[in-house]
Specification:
The structure is a single chain. The chain is built from 15 helices and no strands. The chain has 292 residues and is an all-alpha fold. It is globular and about 55 Å long.
């Protein structure tokens, strides 16, 4: 029993839940972080999305068991390796998703609708969109955007158009970097693992990464300097975080192109010390600027 629970926990991929931290961004940037009720609602939203994303990971593993067995790293996952029963995993997945959606609608109707949209997007991605070139990366990015929207709905804070665009561009940057890593890591078997990989090549991905990287940096800089942002936050000091954002993106590009990493952004964020320090410094600087 204990081993089965351990395998289920691994299948929920808790180390990937760092992606859900973006749900706190609307709370932080709206300057409501110190309001206890809103902070608790954001924590509840984060927990619900951890359950939702965990259930989706199990669903994806069930769908891709045969393909994952061709992947050098994914072949060791509980379902792909045969250590975990697919029937049990499917039942637990359905239960977790239903419970999480029920909790989402209990938190608020708008948050529940956003959570349901996220689940439907992920199911559509697993069944269809992941095989369509370029659209597959946009689907990944849409998942991040929906997380951000959910964070805003949970604490009743409207998202700034700047924040929406920055989230979309950054998610595209991470998604394209992930595709590049998969293409290089799998070589000739890339198309067998994921059909859309047969339609990519490194030159195309490098061009798209370069475009999205530039757009992300420029958009974030314009966001910090816009009169709308300064008026809403009552400060123009957010512009001083631009060097940290630049370094963070450049460091990630270094990991992608020189270290041949990028397949797991959540792992890179936690294991690369310079990148982790940059993120922590950025967070501390934003908190100091907005809440001093």
């Amino acid at each position: 029993m204990r081993e089965t629970l351990r395998l289920l926990w691994r299948s929920f991929r808790p180390h990937h839940w760092t992606k859900n931290l973006i749900l706190f961004a609307p709370l932080v940037f709206s300057q409501h972080l110190l309001e206890v009720e809103r902070a608790l609602r954001a924590l509840a939203a984060f927990a619900i999305f951890c359950l939702l994303s965990g259930g989706i990971y199990v669903l994806n593993d069930l769908r891709d068991i045969e393909r994952d067995r061709l992947h050098p790293r994914k072949a060791h996952r509980p379902l792909a390796s045969g250590a975990l029963s697919p029937r049990l995993a499917a039942r637990v997945c359905a239960l977790v998703l239903l419970v999480a959606l029920a909790l989402a609608f209990r938190l608020s109707a708008a948050f529940g609708i956003t959570a349901l949209s996220y689940v439907l997007l992920q199911i559509t991605y697993s069944l269809w969109m992941k095989r369509i070139v370029i659209l597959d990366v946009f689907a990944i990015a849409a998942g991040f955007v929906l997380r951000a929207v959910a964070g805003g709905e949970a604490v009743a804070v409207p998202l700034s158009p700047w924040f929406f665009i920055c989230t979309l561009l950054l998610a595209l940057f991470l998604g394209l970097s992930k595709r590049r890593h998969e293409l290089l890591a799998l070589n000739e078997s890339a198309a067998e693992h994921r059909a859309s990989l047969a339609l990519y090549n490194t030159l195309l991905l490098d061009q798209m990464i370069a475009m999205v990287t530039s757009a992300t940096i420029v958009t974030y800089a314009l966001y910090t300097l816009s009169s709308e942002t300064i008026a809403r936050l009552h400060t123009d000091a957010l512009k001083y975080t631009i060097p940290l954002v630049l370094y963070g993106i450049f460091r990630y590009l270094y990991l992608v192109y020189r270290k041949e990493e990028g397949g797991n952004p959540e792992t890179a964020l936690l294991t690369d010390r310079p990148l982790l320090i940059t993120i922590l410094l950025y967070g501390a600087m934003v908190l100091w600027i907005l809440y001093r």
